[in-house]
Amino acid sequence: MILSVIVVLGSLVSVLVVILVRGAPALSVSMLTQSSTGGYYLGGAGGILNAIVGSAYLVSGATAIALVISLPTALYLNEYASRSKLASFARHSLDVLWSVPSIIYGVFGFTIMVYFGIRASLLGGIMALGMLELPIMIRAMDEVMRMIPLKLKESSYALGATKLETALNVVARQALPGITMGVLLAVGRAIGDAASVLFTAGYTDSIPRSLFDPVASLPLAVFFQLATPFPAVQQRAYASAFILLVMVLSLSVASRLLTRKATAYVIK
Amino acid sequence: MLSATILSSLVVIAIALVLLQKSTLILTTHSLSELLLSSSWHPSQNEFGFYPYIVGTLWVTGLAMAISTAPSLLMSIYLAEYAPARVRSIIKPMVDLLAGIPSVVYGLWALLLIVPLIRNQVAPLLGVTTTGYTVLAGGIVLAVMVTPITISVSEEVIRAVPRPIREASMALGATRWQTVKHAVIRSAFPGIIAAVILGFGRAFGETIAVLMVVGNVAKVPASIFDPAYPIPALIANNYGEMMSIPSYESAFMLAALLLLLIVLAFSIVAAVLLVGIKRRYAVG
Q1: How many contacts does A have with B, using Cβ atoms within 8 A?
Q2: DSSP string, A10-62
Q3: Is B47 helix (H, G, I), strand (E, B) or coil?
Q4: How far B73 CA sits from the closest chain A CA (Å)?
Q5: What's chain B's Rg over C-alpha atoms?
Q6: pLDDT tens digits for B103-151?
Q7: Considering the entire predicted model, what is its pTM?
Q8: Where would I find the beta strands (DSSP E) of chain B?
Q9: Is A206 helix (H, G, I), strand (E, B) or coil?
Q10: pLDDT given at position B283
Q11: How far is CA A215 from the centre of its chain?
């Protein structure tokens, strides 16, 4: 049994170490601050700023949309329709959505985009990533809201608050740590996901200036840099993977810290 | 709020319907047996035999589950039953961390470590020559990706087994291990199966990491040292040519639909098992 623990944790450490060791030497300031130039994938100058900024745009757009849909959904599921058929249908359907492979989001997003005539762009990527983040956020929020003691809500109603006021002021505030954790979990997943943005967001050397421009993303940057036959460019792929890993890890740590801070408003 | 809920619950149905509608073209022009059992894949001649891809997917996923199930279960038993609280509080976040690593990073790690390992160490040991881009590499990287999910779900399930069951077993004179094996695991069994099935479903659909190390050769693999071409990798590699041949796009939609249906079936079975466990142990 201890052996299995060693094997599993050992592989985690191995992943971190390999990427660190191969990625750090290739890292340089220019990688972080310059966009790709024309000859980048053939060994030319430039950096992956387009991918870093692109990923930031994609994920913030997707998170905004997913948040706008998921928070009301979670509140509705817990406050208004807890035992109704709609609630159980919604929960089951979201459970299924949670295990959908991300490439299917890409295929679906692509089909919708073709139907509406949108080209591979920031908008398409935001749609696909939003669909990816949705079930993760709703599930996390739902679990936290379910655990809120009934007494809290009853006291609020007893003071004359409406369902909406209770939902916004009591439930949402109490569930804030869980909501934060859910959002950051979803963001971490979305930053690293390549399969859903492969078809929908396209790839480009520049930073998008409108919703309809194609956009680069970090995972695809790693992927495409790796696919070149030049060792120098492959080195850069390792460095990009290093940056991606650092981003995801710091998000993980940040989510723990932020969750602890948000617990300040929670009534125990 | 109501509209938001309805919208979110309809997404998965919309996905399934769109994929179904787009697959009808190929389903009407080719028989199901030809699609599933034929090995000839020539889109320009309107031949779509999915057999090598299906077999490749099954090989890689099956290998991943074979590798990951035992260590995951052992580790979750250790975490739930034997680990002191401090050890558990260190290990659990590490497992969650493993779950959050992006799949390209896993693919890169496998490319840098596992593929050369197979090519230079493992294969010569068994007298086989291989490029390293094999079913084995895909299986190993998938196993590492699936392990955190299996561990966290089965650990929760094992912890959920009520104390009286353990206490009764110990009162009858059983050792710690006997208690775990005969009482706890037997009670948690449906939930453990559910955890494994959930992991299976995840392994089926994982695209990028596997694509990078599995070789992408459309032949039925003869051994784990042969390359394979799982269905998600097929979709990801060929999306650019989708639009030029009409049946091609439909074939991919069918592949995606197949993937969706399999994952759906797995998650439904797992959900049913988990609900059964919750109902059995619900207190009050």
Answers
A1: 223
A2: HHHHHHHHHHHHHHGGG--HHHHH--B-TTGGGT-SB-SHHHHHHHHHHHHHH
A3: strand
A4: 9
A5: 22
A6: 888 888 888 888 888 888 777 777 777 777 888 888 999 998 888 888 8
A7: 0.85
A8: 41-42, 47-48
A9: coil
A10: 46
A11: 16
Nearest to B109 among A3, A19, A199 (CB): A19
Q: What are phi and psi of B42, to 5 degrees?
A: -130, 90
| Residues B158, B274: Cα–Cα separation, whole Å | 12
Count the residues in chain A: 268
Report CA Rg, chain A. Answer: 21
Total number of domains in chain B: 1
* Amino acid A99: pLDDT: 83
Residue B229, domain extent = 51-281
For residue A267, give the nearest of A151, A137, A143, A146 by alpha carbon.
Answer: A151
Measure Cα distances from A88 to A78, A168, B272 in Å.
11, 22, 13
Nearest CA in chain A to B78: A1
What is the C-alpha to C-alpha distance for residues A33 and A31, in angstroms, rounded to an integer?
6
- Which residue from B241, B268, B266, B278 is spatially nearest to B41, judged by alpha carbons? B241
Distance separating alpha carbons of residues B269 and B194, to the nearest angstrom = 7
- Return the pLDDT at A130: 92
ipTM of the prediction: 0.85
CB < 8 Å to A19, chain B: 105, 108-109
Distance CA A74, CA B4 (A): 9
Distance (Å, whole) CA B281 – CA B271: 15
Contact predicate B255/B238, CB 8 Å: no
For residue B256, being part of any structural domain is answered with yes
Instruction: Tell me which fold the domain A49-265 belongs to.
Output: MetI-like fold (1.10.3720)
Residue A60's pLDDT is 92
Q: How far apart are CA A255 and CA A181, in angstroms?
A: 6
The answer to the question of residue B229 being in a domain is yes
Tens of pLDDT, residue by residue over A86-134, are: 888 888 888 888 888 888 898 888 888 888 888 888 888 999 999 999 9
- A64 has pLDDT over 90: yes
Residues 46-105 of B with CB under 8 A from A: 70-72, 74-75, 77-78, 82, 91, 93-98, 100-105
List the CATH number of the domain containing B208: 1.10.3720.10
List the domain boundaries for chain A. Answer: 49-265
